[in-house]
Amino acid sequence: MTRFNERTIKRASPSPVVPGTSAATTGTSAAATETPAAAPARSGRPTLALTSAATAVALMTYTAPVVTLPNTAAALHTPLSAQAWLLNGTPLGLAALLLVAGSLADDYGRRRVFLAGTLALGLTTALGGLTTSTWAFTLARVAQGAASAAILASSLGLLVAAFPSARGRLHATGVWGAFVSGGIALGPLVAGAMPSWRVAYAVLGAAALLVAGVSFRALTESRSPRGGRPDVAGAVAFGLALVSLVAALTLGRDGWLRAPVALPLAATVVLLGVFTLIERRFAATPMIDLALFRTPRFLVSSLSGLVTGLTVIGLFSYLPAVLQRTLGMSAMDTAWLFLLWSGLSFAVALQAKRLAGRVSPRLQLAAGFLLHAAGALTMLGALDAGSWPRLLPGLVLGGAGSGLLNAALPLQAVESVPAARAAMGSGAQQTFRYIGSCAGVALTIAVATSSGSGLAHGADVAMAVSAGVAVLGAAGVAVLGAAGEVGLRERA
Question: What predicted TM-score, i.e. pTM, was given to this entire model?
Answer without folding.
Answer: 0.73
